[in-house]
Structure formats: C-alpha cells, structure tokens
Amino acid sequence: MVPKKRILSGMRPTGLLHLGNLHGALSNWIDMQNQYECFFFIADWHALTTNYENTESISDNVFNMMLDWLSAGLKPDKNTLFVQSQIKEHAELFLILSMITPVPWLERNPTYKDQVLQIKNRDLSTFGFLGYPVLQAADIIIYKADGVPVGVDQVPHVEITREIARRFNHIYGRVFPEPEAILTKTSKILGLDRRKMSKSYDNAIYLSDTPKEIKAKAARMITDPNRIKKTDPGNPEICNVFTFHGLYSDKEDIAQINMDCRAGTIGCVDCKKKVSKNLEKFLLPVKEKRAYYEKQPDLVYDIIKAGNKKAKSVAAKTMEEVRSVIKI
Ligand code: TRP
Ligand code: SF4
C-alpha cells in the first residue's frame, strides 16, 4: 500500500470559530482527514507575535478552539491534534532556521508589510513578528509535511518555508522535503454586513451561537439593497441571505425562495426567519458534540495530551537528524 501523504496545518487561537472559518479552512480539513495523514495544531506561540501584551485569554482560546474543532467533526482518532507550545522542538528548530534565513526574505513578505501598515495600535516592530514565517516554517518541516492546506493569504509563508527548507538542505544535506501549499477555496459566505466574515468586524455568526443569537443576527443581515418594500422584486444572486439558504436549506426551499424573491411575494423578514431555522438545524449536531465535550473537559485535555505525544515523537526524531547534520 502506498503510504498516505502527510499534511499539516494550524490556526492561531484568536477566539471562537465562525461560519466563515467552518466553510473555509475547517470543512476542508474535515474532508481531508480520510485521505491524508493529518496533523492539525493550535499555534499559540504565533498568537504571541501580535498579542504579547495580552496573554490571559490564550489558554482559554486554545481549549475553545479544540472544542470547536471536535464539535465541527475533526476526529481525534484519525488526526494528530496538538498544541504548538507543548512541542518545544518547534522552538529549537525555529532557532536553527533563524540562523540561515536572510532578513530580506522576511522583510519582503507581503503579510508582514500589510500588517505593519494595518495594525497601528500595537508595536509590531519586534524580532518575533518579523520572524513569524520562520516559526511557521519550523512548524511545517519538523513533521516533514508534504502538503499544507491554507488560505490564499498564507501562501507566501509556505513559499518562504520552501525556500528555507531548500537552503537548509543545501547547506547541511537533505533532511526536509519541500512542502506544497494546498489552496483552500474561500468560503462564499459573507458577514452580516456583507464584508468578509471576521471577528474583528463584529459581523460573524459563531458555531456556538444560541438559536436566539442566530435569529437576532439573521435579522441584522443586509439583503438586496434595492428591495425597499416587500412587493419589490428582489435579486437573490446578490443577497447574502440567499447564499446562506444555499448552504443550509433544502433544494425545494431554495427554488421556492428564488422564485418568490424575484416575484416580490416573500418578505426579507420571513426569508431570514426561514434561514435562521435551517441554520439552527444544521448546527444542531455541532452543538450536541460541543455539549458532550464541554461536560467532560478532561476528555478534551486527554485528546490534546495524546495528540501532543504523537506530534512530539515525530518532531523529536526529526530533531535528531537535524542535530546530526549540523553536528551540534
Ligand atoms: N500563520 C497561520 C495563520 O495565521 C497559522 C499557522 C502557524 C500555520 N503555523 C502554521 C498554518 C503552519 C499552516 C502551517 O493562519
Ligand atoms: Fe434576500 Fe430573501 Fe430578501 Fe430575497 S427575500 S432579498 S433572498 S432576504
């Protein structure tokens, strides 16, 4: 049997996951778990790069992220689910890679340039922030991952990872494969205000939202702006509520709403009520799993412990090779 390809990806623990995360990265991971040998981890050290002054919530966020992952359907017995900061080998490899990484590679990294311009309320002129992709490279190559499922914003980091791996192999001898980015399709779903769904825009619906919260949020959603009266004909193609129907409603409902909206025979208020019901139904199994794990936090900690142990054994083995080729 051909061994399964190994993939690895991570998320920073920045808070509860929303539908945009679910239909983007997470559902992609869930699809991959049968096909690949998967390592998924929570990048809590990476959370430090921008939040070094605010660390109180990081460990709660780690726990909550694992809850979200498990309730969305990542299987602990199929994947290695772990926490970055518990595998100290990442830090050792990060240090070694930082010795061979030219600073200009990091300075021309587009995500670095963007964030320095965008984030004005924190001092990001730190060594660690500039070195973000070097830590990410260590995360990836320490597991000798073949593929890295990421969104388009992370592709430059995988590119830098390949360059660093190549440079290491060139200097010391071949230890690391060069990982490929596996591009995640971005979710079509927008936030309540039709901007990208994001925690920082306050326009997100979370996997853990209650039915009441879902209803209230759906009521806030912006619809076809040309529809003023209920009898105005609408255009579902430009309406985010209709995108939600596409994901959560059944075929007949979708077809009916499509017709009624265009004919001006359904009001947006009713249309939103329908979508929130169907979304609630869709989230029911997710909520059930969340409740199951929330009741037994020790189970979640055991899953993390077992994942850490597996990850650690792979990382430790790679580090033996690394130390041997660099002769330290
Ligand atoms: N930088 C990634 C993000 O912000 C998170 C991350 C850290 C990551 N290390 C990784 C992703 C390794 C893939 C592989 O989304
Ligand atoms: Fe959107 Fe539904 Fe209103 Fe049509 S009826 S504009 S699909 S919310």
Q: Key features?
A:
Tyrosyl-Transfer RNA Synthetase; 328 residues; three-stranded parallel beta sheet; two-stranded parallel ribbon; mainly alpha; single chain; 8% strand; binds iron/sulfur cluster; binds tryptophan; Rossmann fold; 56% helix
How would you describe what is shown here?
The protein is 56% helix and 8% strand. The strands form two sheets. The chain has a three-stranded parallel sheet. Strands 4-5 form a two-stranded parallel sheet. Helix 3 packs across helix 13 (268-295) and helix 11 crosses helix 13 (268-295). The protein folds into two domains: 6-189 and 297-326, HUPs (Rossmann fold, 3-Layer(aba) Sandwich); 209-290, Tyrosyl-Transfer RNA Synthetase, CATH 1.10.240.10. With 328 residues, it is mainly alpha-helical. The radius of gyration is 22 Å and the shape is elongated. The structure holds tryptophan and iron/sulfur cluster. Residues 8-12, 43, 46, 136, 139-140, 148, 150, 154, 157 line the site of tryptophan.
Helix tally equals: 14
Total domain count: 2
Number of strands: 5
- Round the mean pLDDT to the nearest integer and report it: 95
Give the name of the CATH superfamily of the largest domain: HUPs
Quaternary structure of the protein:
single chain
Proportion of helical residues: 55-70%
Query: Which structural class matches the secondary elements?
Result: mainly alpha
Weakly predicted, low-confidence segments: none
Elements, N to C (H/E): EHEHHEHHHHHEHEHHHHH
Principal-axes shape call: elongated
Q: Span between N and C termini?
A: 37 Å
Strand content: 5-15%
CATH fold annotation of the largest domain = Rossmann fold
Distinct bound molecules: tryptophan, iron/sulfur cluster
CATH architecture of the largest domain: 3-Layer(aba) Sandwich
| Strand arrangement, major sheet | 1-2-3
What about the largest sheet? 3 strands, parallel
Write down the CATH class of the largest domain.
Alpha Beta
